[in-house]
Design brief:
Length: about 550
């Protein structure tokens, strides 16, 4: 009795192996081009670029820092479904299916080149992988075709043995025992070769990662000439459940569009400063940056996507060089002193562009080119070897990670990445406060309950925090000692909780006299407003 294998199984396996081959070859080629040129990265980046802000916010809210992993897995699932469909098509129309694979590769190439950081070479991994995948699909489906005897006439097409076959007999085709063995041998060979190719590509990329990791591990940051100093006594309240004054690096929020975290060797890093009003263009190496005067400052960063009461804010001690000094050395003058440029475009190695107001960067605040975070070199997730940190501005207009270029221009001439997508050009941080404890829906016992949280108004400072229960009067909370106007401030209010279901609400007033509004506004286009509240039950 002959062994048989259904046509659907042949097509599915052939399609999936073709996709696997495409990705493996592209992985290898990307190791010589650059890691960001891999098809999944390029397509994923394009998806992020074109995703509406509301969808991005939903993804961040539901998946947090795993949002990019979810996107990558989604792309791979869709690719697998496409591969199965193309494999089924190939069992009837081999040439058309192979051309479809090439077309998909061309799409990936166009997307890669069209990314903000894209270059012509970024097309090579997608195109090379598509050619390899199309060849595999054509060969494997050729192994799986045989003529169905006694059928000929209009609509015939060529089977693997050169004889005529009608498309409408495709569903009836199976593999004989001999042909089954040929197909299995061919498929196994392709799978093994593709796996080896992909592993080699990953190994080459891992070698670059290892070099970058070694450069970070060997880095000894010079002692800052102006250290941040000790945290003032009383600046951190001992309340269980309250966010610590200084956020550990492992817990610091990460919001960016990089599907793969760049791993940059500090020895090869360069920063270029150029553009409108630059009379002395600069190009600095990492060692040259470290040779400059380093300062250390504790600065709270906030993401514009942070909803009212959200967790996308954190406080760290940053070590770096004053950005204003770099700009002044390049001959830059702020608009208030006659400078022609009012916007600084910061570019990262993965193509992100963030635009900051030049006037703000040079107004005396501690805007930094940061190289250290909480006493150690920047983690890769947070921008090693160099990133920007600017107190008082949301991250989307200032906190460029993996920094490689600073270009002076104007807001009229150039829209940075997020501005092109509907966000405002300038992003001053809005005064906010948050209840950390008790958590929403907590069940509490009657009696004294500490209600505590943090409030921030970077580069302005927090002057007052108030809490109320249900619609009752506002009561002043106890403020922790201030650790500078660029650092969030902890607060606590002792509540004599009574039985029942209650709503706790907080509001802050900054040093300019502005009190948080009760009007709820979404994060788009320039940050959320409103007052954080939690509902608790007291037994």
């Amino acid at each position: 009795m002959r062994e048989v294998l259904p046509t659907a199984a042949v097509g599915s396996v052939a399609g999936l192996l073709a996709a696997f081959t495409s990705l493996a070859v592209a992985e290898l080629v990307a190791a010589w081009v650059r890691e960001e040129a891999r098809p999944v990265n390029a397509v994923g980046g394009a998806v992020i670029d074109r995703t509406p802000a509301a969808v991005k916010d939903w993804a961040i809210e539901n998946f947090g820092t795993n949002d990019k992993l979810v996107l990558q897995l989604g792309i791979l699932v869709l690719l697998a479904l496409f591969a199965v469909a193309v494999g089924a098509l190939a069992m009837r129309f081999r040439r058309s299916a192979s051309l479809a694979v090439l077309g998909f590769g061309l799409f990936g190439a166009v997307v890669a080149v069209g990314r903000p950081e894209g270059a012509g070479a970024d097309a090579v991994p997608s195109l090379t992988g598509a050619v390899a995948g199309a060849a595999v699909l054509y060969v494997l489906t050729g192994q799986g075709l045989r003529m169905v005897p006694g059928r000929s006439g209009p609509g015939e097409r060529e089977g693997h043995d050169g004889r005529a076959e009608r498309p409408d007999t495709a569903a009836a085709r199976t593999l004989s025992g001999l042909e089954r063995r040929r197909f299995v041998v061919a498929a196994t060979t392709v799978a093994a070769a593709s796996a080896g190719t992909g592993l080699l590509g990953q190994r080459l990329n891992a070698t670059g990662h290892a070099q970058a990791a070694a450069s970070r591990a060997a880095l000894g940051l010079p002692a800052p000439s102006s250290p941040a100093g000790a945290v003032p006594a009383g600046a951190e309240l001992a309340v269980p459940g309250l966010e610590p004054l200084i956020t550990p690096n492992r817990d610091f929020y990460r919001i960016d569009t990089a599907l793969t975290v760049p791993r940059i060797d500090a020895e090869g890093w360069r920063l270029r400063v150029h553009g409108l009003g630059v009379t002395r263009p600069l190009e600095l190496s990492f060692d040259q940056l470290l040779d400059r005067e380093l300062i250390e400052r504790r600065i709270t960063l906030t993401c514009v996507s942070n909803p009212v009461g959200g967790r996308y804010t954190g406080n760290a001690g940053w070590i770096g060089v004053r950005l204003a000094e770099i700009l002044e050395e390049a001959g830059v003058r702020p608009p208030s002193r006659g400078g022609p440029a009012d916007q600084l475009i910061a570019r990262s190695v993965e193509g992100m562009t963030l635009g900051s107001p030049v006037e703000t960067l040079m107004d005396g605040r501690d805007a930094l080119l940061a190289v250290g975070m909480n006493g150690e070199p920047l983690p890769f997730d947070h921008g090693f070897p160099v990133r920007m940190v600017v107190p008082g501005l949301y991250g989307y207009v200032s906190a460029c990670k993996w920094l490689t270029e600073l270009e002076l221009t104007t807001f009229d001439r150039y829209d940075a990445y997020w501005v092109e997508r509907g966000w405002s050009a300038e992003g001053p941080v809005k005064t906010q406060s948050r209840i950390d404890t008790p958590r929403g829906l907590a069940e509490l016992s009657a009696g004294p309950v500490p209600v505590a949280g943090v409030a921030w108004a970077q580069h302005t400072g927090i002057d007052r925090v108030e809490v109320r229960v249900d619609d009752g009067p506002w009561s002043p909370a106890e403020l922790a000692e201030e650790d500078g106007v660029d650092v969030w401030r902890q607060w606590v209010w002792m509540w004599d909780a009574t039985p029942g279901r209650h709503t706790l609400q907080v509001r802050a007033t900054d040093r300019s006299g502005e009190t948080q509004t009760a009007d709820r506004v979404d994060v788009v286009p320039d940050g959320a407003t409103g007052r954080h509240s939690v509902v608790v039950t007291v037994g």
